């Protein structure tokens, strides 16, 4: 791939549009090839190729005569096309860098909508399962808290009842002792 791009860059283009189209196609193929092989494209090399193309356009533009305005207008269109191409490549490079920093990474560019839909369904099912597990866990915590409250109130009530029963038994013993002491007198 790189050799083809270098050979096109060293050739002398007669028609700049054809030259730029070939260069753009080869550059896209180079990036696709890199992503398929799970490599990161050499951005410095791509930028040097772009600079080389810019200088070719500038040199070609300088060699033209001022009298031929029509060809200058075409060169302006080609230069605008190249500027647009450079901005698109820079945007793609920025998107690739953002893509590399994200959590989701596709292994190749050959994914179709069917496989992406399947991945989305799998992801939705996974999210649904985790939500169900979370709901079950929250329900268990609520049940444990309710169980704790029941046990706590049982212990509290039993202590209060024991105290009341103790007071009641104490009063009974007091009456028994009082009656027995009264009977003795």
Automatic annotation (TrEMBL):
Q: Boundaries of each Sec20 C-terminal domain copy?
A: 80-160
Instruction: Name the source's superkingdom.
Output: Eukaryota
Q: Where in the cell is it found?
A: Membrane
User: Carries keyword Plastid?
Assistant: no
Mode of membrane association: Single-pass type IV membrane protein
Does the record carry Iron as a key word?
Answer: no
Q: GO CC terms for this protein?
A: membrane
| Membrane-spanning parts | 143-169
| Keywords, alphabetical | Membrane, Transmembrane, Transmembrane helix, Transport
For this entry, the protein name equals Putative Sec20 protein
């Amino acid at each position: 791939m790189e050799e083809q791009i270098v050979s096109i860059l060293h050739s002398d283009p007669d028609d700049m549009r054809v030259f730029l189209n070939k260069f753009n196609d080869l550059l896209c193929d180079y990036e696709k090839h890199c992503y398929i092989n799970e490599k990161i494209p050499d951005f410095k090399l791509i930028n040097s190729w772009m600079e080389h193309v810019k200088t070719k356009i500038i040199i070609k533009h300088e060699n033209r005569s001022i009298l031929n305005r029509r060809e200058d207008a075409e060169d302006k269109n080609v230069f605008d096309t190249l500027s647009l191409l450079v901005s698109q490549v820079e945007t793609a490079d920025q998107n690739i860098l953002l893509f590399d920093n994200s959590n989701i990474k596709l292994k190749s560019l050959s994914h179709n909508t069917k496989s992406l839909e399947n991945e989305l369904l799998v992801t939705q099912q996974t999210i649904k399962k985790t939500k169900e597990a979370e709901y079950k866990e929250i329900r268990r915590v609520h049940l444990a808290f309710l169980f704790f409250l029941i046990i706590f109130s049982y212990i509290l009530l039993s202590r209060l009842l024991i105290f009341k029963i103790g007071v009641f038994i104490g009063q009974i013993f007091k009456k028994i002792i009082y009656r027995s002491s009264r009977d003795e007198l």
